[in-house]
Design goal:
It is a single chain. This protein has about 220 residues and is α+β, with helices and mostly antiparallel strands. It has a four-stranded mixed β-sheet with strand order 2-1-3-4, with helices on one face. A hairpin with a 2-residue loop joins strand 3 and strand 4. The protein has two domains: about 80 residues, Glutaredoxin (3-Layer(aba) Sandwich), CATH 3.40.30; about 110 residues, Glutathione S-transferase Yfyf (Class Pi), Chain A, domain 2, CATH 1.20.1050. The chain is globular. InterPro entries: Glutathione-S-Trfase_C-like (IPR010987), Glutathione-S-Trfase_C_sf (IPR036282), Glutathione_S-Trfase (IPR040079), Glutathione_S-Trfase_N (IPR004045), GST_C (IPR004046), Thioredoxin-like_sf (IPR036249).
Length: about 220
């Protein structure tokens, strides 16, 4: 059986988790607290880079969320999470990569500030928001009037971007200026896979307290 090492608050973990649910695959969840368990020898034997997610499939181990998603699509192609149309496929892959390369980096300082231990200046935080706004404008234009980034079909682009964008209002970036993206987010939130993987407010609060405690110990 497939085995996913994950954390509830991890965007990277959640995108794999959602894909497994959308494909209807049986799998086992292995929670990682990230309180040092990622440095234990058993886990380092799976991923020497001590990061999540990690997927095990009948003895085969794969790390890095986008690689895991491509692996799942190749080995378990039904239902497909990639469009067959070349232009739609190009759009899907573009959105996936832009989420990781252009959206996640400016999200990090805002996440640190949200968790309560940011050392970034207000100017740097505002710059991060401006960078994110540029990405959102581009995504808004590429979504156009389609239901999903792959037209009427849920794709990996929706899963990758859809685990990050809905969180932006919590970081001070409301989506009202991006009506197509907001409607898209609302559609995603109605899917059972998003509901099942959404961390509760209590779980988020617990995670923030845990991270603050770990940071204070290191200091």
């Amino acid at each position: 059986m497939l085995k996913l090492y994950y954390n509830l608050i991890s965007f990277n973990s959640r995108r794999v988790w959602i894909s497994l649910l959308e494909k209807g695959l049986p799998f086992e969840l292995v929670p990682m607290k990230l309180d040092g368990d990622q440095f234990q020898s058993e886990f380092l034997a799976l991923n020497p880079f001590h990061q999540i997610p990690v997927l095990e499939d009948e003895g085969f181990v794969i790390v890095e969320s986008l690689a895991i998603l491509d692996y799942l699509e190749a080995k378990y192609p039904t239902p497909s999470l990639l469009p067959s149309n070349p232009q739609m496929l190009g759009t899907v892959k573009m959105i996936e990569l832009l989420t990781l390369t252009q959206m996640m980096p400016p999200m990090r300082p805002l996440m640190m500030d949200w968790m309560g231990f940011s050392e970034e200046s207000s100017e740097k935080l505002q710059e991060a928001k401006q960078n994110l706004a540029q990405v959102l404008r581009f995504f808004e234009s590429k979504l156009a009037d389609r239901t999903y980034f792959g037209d009427q079909q849920l794709t990996l682009a929706d899963i990758v971007a859809g685990t990050a964008i809905p969180f932006l209002p919590s970081l001070g970036l409301p989506l009202e200026d991006y009506p197509r993206l907001k409607d898209w987010c609302d559609r995603l939130m109605t899917r059972e896979s998003w509901k099942q993987t959404q961390p509760t407010a209590q779980q988020i609060t617990k995670f923030k307290a845990q991270m603050k405690a770990l940071l204070s110990q290191r200091q």
